[in-house]
Amino acid sequence: MISYSSNYIDKDIDYDNLYQKYINNFKNINNEIKYYQLLENYLNEFYDAHIGIKTLVNNSSLEEAKEKFYNRYYGFNLFFLDNKTYIATNVSPESKAYKEGLKDGNLIIKWNGNDIKDEIKRLKYLNVSIPNISNKNVLNYYLPFYLSVTGNEENEITFINEEGKTQVINIKSIDNGYKYLKENIETFTKKNDEKNFTYKLINNTAYLKITNEKDKVKDVKKSMNKIVDNINKDNAKNLIIDLRNNEGGSDKIGSLITSYFTNKKTLYLKESILKNNNYKNINEIIVNGNNKIDLPAIILVNGNTISAGEIIAYNLRKFENIKVAGLTSTNGSIATVKKRIIMPENILVSIPSIACKDENNRVIIDSDSNKDGGVKLDIKIPINKETITKIFNKKNDYEMEYMLNYLNKEKIS
User: Is 364 helix (H, G, I), strand (E, B) or coil?
Assistant: First the structure.
């Protein structure tokens, strides 16, 4: 088991107490599946995307642990709206819930006989298709996915029916929920197979997909210069930079990408470590601007935009004609990882140890003791009853459609 003390930011976690809370449970486990489940529950309490289970080899036991953990599917999904309510979506006509009167869009107020908000607070979960989300304002949208596939074989729910009346029904699991959970999260985050630095023109708007910051400097320069040429050739009027599901990488690469959008020499970030309760700056990364791209731009982000991807959005947002948009803000995890622990069964746990700070020596983006963090949105794409169908349409990209429509109507300044 990992005993860890934060040396980069005050997250207000009592690590010694957290260790004591879990140590006896670990000692008493003799089942590999339950070990994975408990380990991830423990690591989730650090609320940092860098701290989680990764496998160095294909590990079927880890997948099996999640499949056994999410072993319920009641024939519908739960989703969280901007107005802080929970609704049923994708209600299957074959389910008992549907036959008892539950329909798409019905407000769910109790789960397993308890207030659904209390059930969300008590929920223990394993991350699926995304890393640990440290920003509570983002996590709120994902927890109902997890809740909807956990519980007893039979479950009691209370909802507001089509007639506006409160109705209590007993529902029954009809399948294992793991595959439905993966599908929902991957649809919500719009995961796809686009390659790093994908470029295309949509009407008069240039589109640039950046999936990570892990390429070599010379390759990034080559890619970005080619994109500049394409933007000029296409006479593009606007630009959408898609950082959704950006998994991070090198901040030096991030600063290089940022340099294409300014003509100034500016601070990208300061790297600091915490010693004797004081931060000590150990490095500065500078943006050497060359101003090759001067277009009004929208940066698309989501809860799976993490680490170095978040810092790009944070820095580009400072420029006058660039705004950040999304269904949710970013993950809120940007500390630099310098330590990795290899555990039995080829399990890898990464430990962040270097804080990222701004010109005023303030820690940026990383979620604080209130679990507030991430890059703030300039444009919040709405999540409500009217947009649910569009958000979960696998064939269309609602966020892209929304922003293209926005660019056609609004002037970015």
Answer: coil
